[in-house]
Design a protein that fits this description.
By secondary structure, the chain is α+β, with helices and mostly antiparallel strands. It has five helices and five strands, in the order E-E-H-H-H-H-E-E-H-E. Strands 3-4-5 form a three-stranded antiparallel sheet, with no helix packed on it. A two-stranded antiparallel sheet has the order 1-2. Strand 1 and strand 2 form a beta hairpin.
Length: 159
């Protein structure tokens, strides 16, 4: 477990680690007098370019092909903890699949515009609840529909 005492918003953060990651981190040279999570062989911080290259390599080795930022790991860990505390044992790929199935379409009917969404599949409802977000309504009235587009005007073209 990585325990961060300081964070941007002053909330302590605990990041779970696999046994293999603990072993690999133990092999890294580390200066004990500094407050760095990772340190270069010189004892100072790694450069931003080195961290980015290492992150890209780690993504490749983990088989992550979707767009994924370094900060996304923290968000995923936070949401996964919230789901775990609710007893929802859904894997991250299943969760993303369930959320991607939630679709919405705008519909104009009798001069009014509505947004209709699909039913929540799998663990989508639990995900919204764990994140503290109310799922969108099945039907939402958006107000008057915009006027229909004007028909194209006929122009006199030379023949």
């Amino acid at each position: 477990m990585i325990n961060l005492r300081r964070s941007k918003n002053a909330v302590p953060i605990n990041i779970p680690m696999t046994a293999r990651l603990v072993e690999e981190l133990g092999r890294l040279p580390r200066a004990r007098d500094v407050d760095l999570v990772f340190s270069a062989p010189s004892g100072g911080p790694w450069s931003n370019s080195r961290i980015q290259r290492s992150f890209i390599l780690a993504k490749t080795l983990a088989g992550i092909t979707r767009p994924f930022r370094f900060h996304d790991m923290r968000l995923e860990v936070d949401l996964q903890r919230r789901l775990d505390s609710r007893g929802c044992a859904t894997s991250w790929p299943e969760l993303m699949r369930d959320l991607s199935q939630v679709q919405a379409v705008d519909l104009d009917l009798d001069g009014e515009r509505y947004r209709l969404r699909t039913d929540l599949a799998g663990s989508a409802f639990e995900t919204f609840a764990a994140a503290g977000v109310r799922p969108p309504a099945v039907v939402t009235h958006l107000g008057p529909a915009p006027p229909p587009p004007a028909p194209p005007t006929q122009t006199n073209l030379p023949m």
